[in-house]
Amino acid sequence: METVVADLAGRGDSRPIKLDVERPVEVSHGAGLGNVVDLEEGRRRVAEYATAVRLEDWAGPVAGPSDIERAFGTRRSTLHDWQKRGAVIGLLKGERKHVFPLAQFLDGRPVKGMSEVTSIIRNSRAAWQWLIQPKPSIGGAPLDLLKAGQVNEVVAAAERDFS
User: Which residues make Cβ contacts (< 8 Å) with residue 60, sequence separation at least 6?
Assistant: First the structure.
């Protein structure tokens, strides 16, 4: 197989390649997508499997802008500016209220490197989940590595995983 792949990589044309196969080849067409269901039926089916989970149960401790202002002395306008620039991650709780995972702050300031990560991973929830889950490829949770100053390693991992 290595020889075939190497030959394919070196070819500049699209001519068919003859392969000698020792066993019969099974042709499979798959089962397709199945029947299309309407939105309500789709929601009903998802509800059978989905389990409601509180944001705090997967994101860890969070706080709203007022709580952060009291705890760190950070003005709401500063917090929202950080969020706008991607320096902190705000997670939507309910329909309009954002809360901020506390683990992304060191001494009341955003962890260095967060802006680079959020510019790669645009979805706040996906970014936060990625940051807090251990990655064997980089030796730990990306957020912990950011806190340890390993910004380049984390940014490279984010690019590998999301680009």
Answer: 101, 102, 103, 132
Tokens 């702050």, residue located: 105
Q: How far apart are CA 74 and CA 97, in angstroms?
A: 18
Ramachandran region of residue 111, left (φ > 0), alpha (ψ -120 to 50) or beta?
beta
Q: What is the pLDDT of residues 30-66, one digit of tens each?
A: 777 788 899 999 999 988 988 888 999 999 999 999 9
114 and 72 Cβ atoms separated by less than 8 Å: no
Could you give the CA distance from residue 131 to residue 100 in angstroms, rounded to a whole number? 14
How far apart, in whole angstroms, are the C-alpha atoms of residue 14 and residue 32? 29
Q: Which residue has the tokens 């645009």?
A: 122
DSSP 22: S
Per-residue model confidence as pLDDT tens digits over 99-110: 999 999 998 999
For the entire predicted model, the pTM comes to: 0.71
Percentages of the chain per state (helix, strand, coil), in multiples of 5:
50, 10, 40
Angle (nearest 5°) at CA 159 between 155 and 163: 160
